[in-house]
Amino acid sequence: MADICRKWRIWILPVLTGVYGLLICILVPILLTNSIKNGLKKEDQGALVGGGFVLLALPIAFYEIIQHMIYYTQPRLQKYIIRILWMVPIYGVNAWLGLIYPSGSIYVDSLRECYEAYVIYNFMMFLLAYLNADHQLAHRLELSPQIKHMFPLCCLPDWQMGREFVHMCKHGILQYTVVRPLSTLISFICALNDVYGEGEFRGDVAFPYMIALNNLSQFVAMYCLVLFYRANATALKPMKPIGKFLCIKAVVFFSFFQGVLIAMLVYFGVISNIFDTDNTDDIRHISSKLQNFLICIEMFLAAVAHHYSFSYKQYVNLAQNQAWWDAFRAMWDVSDVHNDIKEHLGVVGSSLSRRIRGHGGDYQQAWDSANERTSLLPDQVLASKSAPACSFSGYSSDSVYVDDIPSISTATVDINHLSVNNNINT
After folding, report:
1. Domain 41-333: which topology?
2. Closest Cα to residue 378, out of 4, 128, 100?
3. Is the pTM for the entire model greater than 0.85?
4. Which of 23, 124, 166, 364 is the 20 to 30 A CA-CA neighbour of 3?
């Protein structure tokens, strides 16, 4: 038995393939039988076609996920890749359930909407992990040309290249990780109280306000992501980022605006007239049905794109390797998300508090007063906790850390007495 467990890399794919084949043999006949009993209505046809695309997408996505777990040689990168790859199964199954149970689409869509924010966060952290492997990202950006804001935000002051630029981009994306689940929760509560009004653009329902809020938050996240890419385009070339960027933008951002467009076309009667129905409930569900049907098809295309853009092959021949349960544990461990969101809320809360009190202050003051983690990556150790300080007499409030001065190992310099204690390496 122990020998079989040690050879799991050999049998895991055949076993899972057999289980998936058995599931299809059981599930497909049941769905076909139920559809035939119902007279093969348009809703049943859409669920069957959409389900077919989902069944094609799932094995492609799971194959890539399992291969990353088998060749889990770069945990700092692959844990984010695995989380991104789970987008296809979650989106696909979620959209298919929305086709089968259209009346409960507001509830099943909640998981998908929250995972949208999670995917954006993980893609940003994947880029940071790749760029900051040597912990020199902020220093390299300080030496890079200034990145100007783009239209329509070109009037904003430029973000100082370096640590401030990285954290502004990171927090611009993190706000979507906070806003999206909150707006989903509000929509869920409104739906329970019959004031959500899905697909209705009226002032007395919550739907248009939630759309506007999510649209603004998503625009900020996408803008920060593009700005971050522009600043690091040269450094990101070896990883072939274009395909990865397109996968994220196409699935997350395009699907959102696709849903908004469909809702508007249905509300103004363009699409509902095609379906030739006067039933209010049917018209209200048409937009969600179309959105879910298109997502089922798009997830098959996304699975193929992920197979090439986030391939496991570049991690196969690396020397180091870890057990599969490390990948599985890292995949579900969201403590890094919790810490980053806590950090983000600390910055926002500190900045608002200073403005309310009228103290003003720049970005760095808000950062320090929030007592944030200053690492660019979750696994980077703070210099302030690990390195001894070099203190200057007369400037007791300021400290210069050894990590920032490579030529000094452990030193205390007293300027007034011109004395040097300990060792100074030249």
Report:
1. Rhopdopsin 7-helix transmembrane proteins (1.20.1070)
2. 128
3. no
4. 23
